[in-house]
C-alpha cells in the first residue's frame, strides 16, 4: 500500500461482528468493515478513540464527523469539539488488541457502575455501528499513540489496573512478535480472581502476577507488590540514562545523588508522563490505569526508590468519579 499525504488518524466506520466475555469484568468486541482494512496495527499500547452513535442516528447517516471533508482533511477533533454537548457522540480511549483483514479487536472493561462505553460493550449486538479513530495505514506520517518506549532496556516492569490490562496484552504481543528476549514483570490489579486473562508470552523471562482487589482500595495491594519487586532488585538510587544492566538493573547513580520529586494533582491536571529515550538501557517501568493509582505508583518508583524519570512512563487513563476520553 503506497503511503500518501493523508491525516495520520482517520475516523473509520465500524460494525460489531461479535463479542466474547473474557472474564467477569472484560468483554472483547470485534469490529469489522471494509474501511478497517486501512487501520494501521502499530502494536504495543497503541491508543484509538471509540465513538458511540447518537440514539437518533444509530447508522451515522447524519453525522458531520463522517463527511468527506472532515475525514480527508483530518478535521474530526475540531468538528467533534464544535458540536453541541447533546450532539457529541460519546468518545472514549481504548487500546487496539489486534487489527488486520478488515477487523479491529478491542477489549472493554465492565465496571460495576458502567459508563456509556461499558454499557455499549455489554449490550453490543452484531450490526451495531461505531466509529474508530485510528492510525491510517495510507498516511505517510505516523501520528503517535504509543507510549511504551523502553529503548534497549533488558529489565521491564509493567504496572496497571484492569483498565491497563488490554494495553499490557498489546505490549506483550508486540514484544513476542519482535523476538524480544529480556526480563519482564507485569503486575496487574483486577477486581476479582476470575479476571485473569490469557496473555501473549514473549521470549526471555516473563512473570505475570494478577492481583485480585477483592474490595480493597484501588492500588493498595498493587503498591505493596511494586515495593516488594523493587526491594528484590535492590533499588535505592536514581539511574542515569546511559546505565547498563551489569550488576544492577537500575544502573545506580553516584552515591548520595538525589532525584527531584514533585506530586501531580490528579484531580486538576492530567497525569501523563511518557519520556522517549531510544538510547535507554538497563531498567524501564511503564504504569497505567486510574490516575490516583498511577500517582501512588509514581511516588513509590520516583520518590521512595529514586528511579530517574527518564526510565518511567506514567499514564492516568481516567479519574475515578469523572468522565474521561
UniProtKB/TrEMBL annotation:
Matching InterPro entries: FAD-bd_FR_type, SIP_FAD-bd, SIP_fam, SIP_rossman_dom
Positions of the FAD-binding FR-type domain: 9-151
Signal peptide per UniProt: none
Name the UniProt record assigns to this protein: Siderophore-interacting protein
Species per Swiss-Prot/TrEMBL record: Bifidobacterium miconis
Amino acid at each position: 500500500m503506497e503511503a500518501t499525504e493523508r491525516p495520520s488518524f482517520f475516523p473509520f466506520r465500524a460494525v460489531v461482528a461479535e463479542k466474547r466475555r473474557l472474564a467477569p469484568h472484560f468483554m472483547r468486541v470485534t469490529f469489522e468493515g471494509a474501511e478497517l482494512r486501512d487501520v494501521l496495527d502499530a502494536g504495543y499500547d497503541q491508543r484509538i478513540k471509540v465513538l458511540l452513535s447518537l440514539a437518533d442516528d444509530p447508522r451515522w447517516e447524519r453525522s458531520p464527523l463522517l463527511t468527506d471533508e472532515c475525514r480527508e482533511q483530518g478535521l474530526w477533533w475540531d468538528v467533534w469539539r464544535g458540536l453541541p454537548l447533546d450532539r457529541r457522540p460519546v468518545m472514549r480511549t481504548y487500546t487496539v488488541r489486534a487489527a488486520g483483514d478488515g477487523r479491529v479487536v478491542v477489549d472493554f472493561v465492565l465496571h460495576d457502575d458502567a459508563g456509556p462505553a461499558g454499557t455499549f460493550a455489554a449490550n453490543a449486538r452484531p450490526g451495531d455501528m461505531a466509529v474508530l479513530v485510528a492510525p491510517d495505514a495510507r498516511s505517510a506520517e505516523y501520528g503517535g499513540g504509543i507510549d511504551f518506549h523502553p529503548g534497549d532496556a533488558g529489565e521491564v516492569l509493567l504496572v496497571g489496573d484492569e483498565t491497563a490490562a488490554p494495553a499490557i496484552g498489546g505490549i506483550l504481543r508486540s514484544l513476542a512478535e519482535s523476538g524480544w528476549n529480556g526480563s519482564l514483570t507485569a503486575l496487574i490489579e483486577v477486581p476479582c480472581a476470575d479476571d485473569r486473562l490469557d496473555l501473549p508470552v514473549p521470549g526471555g523471562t516473563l512473570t505475570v502476577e494478577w492481583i485480585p482487589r477483592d474490595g480493597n482500595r484501588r492500588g493498595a495491594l498493587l503498591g505493596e507488590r511494586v515495593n516488594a519487586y523493587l526491594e528484590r532488585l535492590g533499588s535505592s538510587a536514581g539511574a542515569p540514562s546511559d546505565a547498563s544492566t551489569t550488576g544492577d538493573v537500575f544502573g545506580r547513580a553516584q552515591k548520595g545523588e538525589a532525584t527531584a520529586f514533585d506530586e501531580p494533582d490528579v484531580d486538576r491536571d492530567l497525569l501523563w508522563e511518557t519520556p522517549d529515550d531510544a538510547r535507554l538501557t538497563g531498567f524501564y517501568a511503564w504504569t497505567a490505569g486510574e490516575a490516583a493509582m498511577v500517582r501512588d505508583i509514581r511516588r513509590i518508583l520516583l520518590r521512595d526508590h529514586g528511579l530517574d524519570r527518564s526510565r518511567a512512563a506514567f499514564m492516568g487513563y481516567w479519574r475515578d468519579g469523572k468522565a474521561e476520553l
